[in-house]
């Protein structure tokens, strides 16, 4: 009786302790269960360093999960399967990856030194075109070389190459809240003939909630005119949350694709009854194409689903590949190859954890759900992606430029046969990068924003010939 009581008590206690451990942040769990042997900063001690590049065991995520679960008792690594559940072990792997990345982060790669950035293949300077007050979101270059620039707080500017700018009047009612506001701007593929300009922004039907909307219109005498609404959600789909609106627009074969984030309602990313957490496809005048994958869904514009907050999308015109970057949870930012009708898994599967550092799920893969081509641990906060085709930086041609907010990096992803071969940081620590575009002459332009001063800059990467080394 007594023995039974004590063993029951022990089971209850150990369940309590492990439940507690499993709801805690990965950093806290690491400190309590691992730091004594592996060092406070994972630098090693009784156990090996977890931040260097030397691994005794399989260093894939699955391999690291396995050694934490099973241990290596004879060599002094205790097994944690009884103490930590799969979710907690998954979050420890993310913690180890984050710390390793911090420890190995070479701040000199992509840094501006004496006005110059030297990358593997090209050197460049940053040339500032203009400054704006407010947070910039997107830009597009007009045929005459001038630009349209969006500021999230409801402003559209016409920027001349000499830096002078005029504001376009008469925009629709825009609901600016958190990550919402005026978002992307894009030109009709035959803009010179049609004059159509496309915008995405957050729209509110009742002041208290909003949803991503797609419109087109024309700019005449400095005014937004002839607006047509091409997509807007139901009032049911509006949310008061100021997060995850997407949104970017691209064109391919006389269709347009645009993205909407999950609006903070992550389960809905899996449902075809909701427009959020999706990539949508429409004709250029907003009709549903007959060959979309879900013609009977409430939103037949859905092209792919299971997305968290896709803010970047780009086309490789040679192959027709559509690439998208999306903000994941902490350690779960993704690059995806977007294909018709597929499910990209959010929130059922993710490589990330909650922002607080507590576990989210142990599931990184499931049947019927696509894997990202790349995921970033730690997250960069990927905001935009562009498939580069220009002549100004010939070695970057045919590859992807990825812009990021939190990490303040511009990253080159080298592609071969639609697979990412390697990554190189081209630029760092020059403010959060909202957009990266290619000018008509192959120039690369960045839209940068600084939350501290609530201001933005448009810069060009100016190639510089450096003497052969
Ligand atoms: C009592 C000391 C001790 C504790 C506590 C401990 N480890 Fe270890 N760990 C070791 C030793 C020793 C090894 C090397 C085992 C070997 O040589 O086979 C190791 C190996 C590892 C490895 C494999 C490293 C490689 O190079 O392949 C990982 C990953 C790891 N531990 C993670 C953890 C985590 C996460 C925790 C906490 C949940 C933890 N360890 C707690 C001692 C410890």
UniProtKB/TrEMBL annotation:
Q: Where is the signal peptide?
A: 1-23
Indicate whether Metal-binding appears among the record's keywords: yes
Keyword presence, Signal: yes
Keywords assigned by UniProt?
Answer: Heme, Iron, Metal-binding, Signal
One matching Pfam family, short form?
GSDH
Matching entries from Gene3D superfamilies are given as: Cytochrome c-like domain, TolB, C-terminal domain
- Where the record annotates domain Cytochrome c, the positions are 21-100
Which PANTHER family does the entry link to? ALDOSE SUGAR DEHYDROGENASE YLII (PTHR19328:SF75), HEDGEHOG-INTERACTING PROTEIN (PTHR19328)
Q: What is this protein called?
A: PQQ-dependent sugar dehydrogenase
Taxonomic placement? Bacteria, Pseudomonadati, Pseudomonadota, Gammaproteobacteria, Alteromonadales
């Amino acid at each position: 009786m007594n023995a039974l009581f004590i063993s029951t008590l022990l089971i209850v206690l150990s369940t309590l302790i492990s439940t507690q451990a499993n709801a805690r942040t990965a950093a806290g769990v690491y400190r309590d269960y691992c730091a004594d042997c592996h060092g406070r900063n994972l630098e090693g001690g009784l156990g090996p360093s977890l931040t260097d590049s030397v691994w005794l065991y399989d260093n894939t995520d699955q391999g690291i999960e396995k050694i934490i679960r099973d241990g290596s008792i004879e060599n002094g690594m205790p097994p944690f399967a009884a103490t930590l559940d799969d979710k907690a072990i998954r979050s420890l792997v993310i913690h180890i990856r984050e710390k390793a990345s911090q420890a190995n982060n070479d701040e000199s790669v992509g840094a501006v030194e004496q006005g110059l950035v030297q990358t593997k293949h090209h050197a460049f300077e940053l040339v500032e075109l203009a400054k704006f007050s407010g947070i910039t979101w997107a830009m597009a270059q007009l045929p005459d070389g001038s630009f349209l620039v969006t500021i999230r707080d409801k402003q559209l500017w016409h920027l001349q190459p000499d830096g002078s700018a005029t504001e376009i009047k008469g925009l629709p009612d825009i609901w600016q809240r958190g990550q919402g506001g005026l978002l992307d701007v894009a030109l009709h593929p035959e803009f010179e003939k049609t004059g159509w300009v496309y915008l995405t922004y957050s729209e509110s039907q009742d002041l208290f909630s909003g949803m991503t909307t797609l419109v087109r219109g024309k700019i005449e005498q400095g005014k937004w005119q002839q607006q047509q609404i091409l997509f807007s959600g139901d009032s049911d789909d509006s949310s008061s949350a100021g997060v995850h609106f997407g949104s970017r627009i691209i064109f391919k074969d006389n269709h347009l694709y645009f993205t909407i984030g999950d609006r903070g309602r992550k389960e809905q990313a899996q449902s075809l009854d909701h427009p959020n957490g999706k990539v949508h496809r429409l004709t250029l005048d907003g009709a549903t194409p007959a060959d979309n994958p879900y013609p009977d869904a409430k939103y037949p514009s859905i092209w792919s689903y299971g997305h968290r907050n896709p803010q970047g999308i780009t086309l490789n015109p040679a192959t027709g590949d559509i690439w998208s970057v999306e903000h994941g949870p902490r350690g779960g930012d993704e690059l995806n190859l977007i294909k018709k009708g597929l499910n990209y898994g959010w929130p059922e599967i993710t490589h990330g954890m909650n922002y607080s550092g507590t576990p989210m799920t142990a599931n990184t893969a499931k049947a019927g759900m696509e894997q990202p081509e790349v995921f970033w641990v730690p997250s960069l906060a990927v905001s935009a992606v562009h498939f580069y085709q220009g002549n100004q930086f010939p070695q970057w041609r045919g590859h992807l430029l990825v812009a990021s907010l939190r990490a303040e990096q511009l990253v080159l992803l080298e592609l071969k046969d639609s697979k990412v071969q390697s990554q190189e940081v081209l630029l760092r620590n020059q403010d959060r990068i909202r957009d990266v575009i290619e000018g008509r002459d192959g120039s690369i332009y960045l839209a940068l924003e600084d939350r501290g001063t609530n201001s933005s800059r448009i810069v060009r990467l100016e190639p510089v010939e450096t003497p052969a080394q």
